[in-house]
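Entry 12.
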Amino acid sequence: MSKRENDSFSVKDLMQHFIKENNLSKGMQKIRVEEAWTKMMGPGVAIHTTSVKLQNKTLIISLTSSVLREELGYGKEKIIKLMNEELGDELVEKLLLV
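Predicted 3D structure (tokens):
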């Protein structure tokens, strides 16, 4: 009988390989950005958030509350810094609150 090779791979490595081969990295970044926003800002802000989009290194956040939009506008630089730290990469350069 021939000897069987037991190459073991972690699920993480297999998923990264699959994402890279199928050009899914941009879509995965968008999902990571949405999850990071909800995690970082908490449920109070998440309730008033209607959409989170990342386009050309600009994070576009749609909010239902004008008061919240004004309050978050004062800390744009801090939000950008925290989002990039959470994502582990410099994906966000500009924040647009609409």
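Annotation: The mean pLDDT is 84. The longest strand covers residues 49-55.
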